[in-house]
Amino acid sequence: MVNPAEVPTASVSDLPSEGLVLLDVREPDEWSAGHAPEALHIPLGELPSRAAELAELPDDRPVYVVCRTGGRSARAAAWLNAAGVVDAVNVAGGMKSWQTEGRALVSDDERTPPEVL
């Protein structure tokens, strides 16, 4: 298994503004409360069974993997790279950094403002 410390990592400020492929591996309640508008949601525990969905993503650019603060996404990126599913890059600081950097957030319930749980 790949050591999560050896996973390619990028900060939110380094993420491309165009053509960003973002995979959110947080749990459903975290996703519902607030997520990036274009993100794909596959909870960490479901990655192995849903890897085929990732194979449909564009393969000409990396898939940036995000969770709340970067721990789960590092494990997910390590697994994805080791399995050869996609070229995965961990997003350092996760959705907490995403929010701090002022990136767009949406929630599943339009009546409540999005937040990062």
Automatic annotation (TrEMBL):
Rhodanese domain mapped to chain residues: 16-107
Gene3D superfamilies according to UniProt: Rhodanese-like domain (3.40.250.10)
Single annotated GO MF: transferase activity
Superkingdom to which the source organism belongs: Bacteria
Alphabetized UniProt keyword annotations: Transferase
InterPro entries assigned: GlpE_sulfurtransferase, Rhodanese-like_dom, Rhodanese-like_dom_sf
Keyword Transferase assigned: yes
Keyword Transferase set for record: yes
Cited SUPFAM superfamilies: Rhodanese/Cell cycle control phosphatase
PROSITE patterns found in the cross-reference section: RHODANESE_3 (PS50206)
Identification of the protein by name: Sulfurtransferase
Taxonomic source organism: Prauserella muralis
Lineage, highest ranks first: Bacteria, Bacillati, Actinomycetota, Actinomycetes, Pseudonocardiales
